[in-house]
Design a protein that fits this description.
CATH superfamily: Endonuclease Chain A
Helix content: 25-40%
CATH class: Alpha Beta
CATH topology: Endonuclease, Chain A
Structural class: alpha+beta
Number of strands: 9
Strand order of the largest sheet: 1-9-8-7-2-5-6
Shape: globular
Number of helices: 5
Radius of gyration: 15 Å
């Protein structure tokens, strides 16, 4: 399966259908990260709540982003101490990241323009959303290639030769 998703369809066909069904791991790479809400059992909850619940049941969550989150995200983040205390939650900041992708259990992925924000991936009204495009796919070879790249990024393989190291707030290596 290789499916183009536009605007609201990103939320409706990927985020709301698959993020709460993760079994083993969820990797999210984004340039921008803001407070974002999703629908769950008829109500809207912060995505961070879902991430905390996933970590609580043993799902590994990795978040890679390019800049410091805004104050509303940080305030919301502080409500979920397991995201700081549980080693299943990994988070790094790399100012060179411009990629936007989500990988679920190594068998489903989304790559596109949408950041981890309400107007990008979240449950925002269709008339308040960003105009976004991306692909959802389940090709295991492509997903494993993407995972290898994300893993190299997470492990700091690109840090040694990075020419933006002087502006990096927290070099991985």
């Amino acid at each position: 399966m290789h499916k183009l998703l536009l605007n609201q369809a990103i939320y409706e066909n990927f985020v709301s259908q698959h993020l709460d069904r993760v079994n083993e791991f969820l990797w999210i790479v984004t340039a921008d990260v803001k407070d974002m809400y999703i629908e769950s059992a008829g109500t809207f909850i912060p995505l961070l709540q879902l991430l905390a619940e996933l970590v609580d049941i043993g799902v590994a969550v990795r978040l890679i982003h390019a800049k410091e989150p805004g104050p509303r995200f940080r305030e919301e983040f502080d409500r979920f101490p397991q995201l700081l205390e549980n080693e299943l939650f990994e988070r790094i900041l790399c100012p060179r990241v411009h990629t936007k992708c989500i990988i679920i259990d190594g068998c489903l992925a989304f790559v596109g323009s949408a950041n981890l924000t309400g107007a990008g991936l979240g449950a925002k009204h269709r008339d308040k959303r960003n105009f976004e495009a991306g692909f959802m796919f389940d090709d295991v070879d492509q997903i494993h290639s993407l995972m290898d790249w994300v893993d190299r990024l997470y492990l700091g393989e690109f840090c040694h030769d990075c020419r933006l190291r002087h502006v990096c707030p927290d070099p991985i290596v």
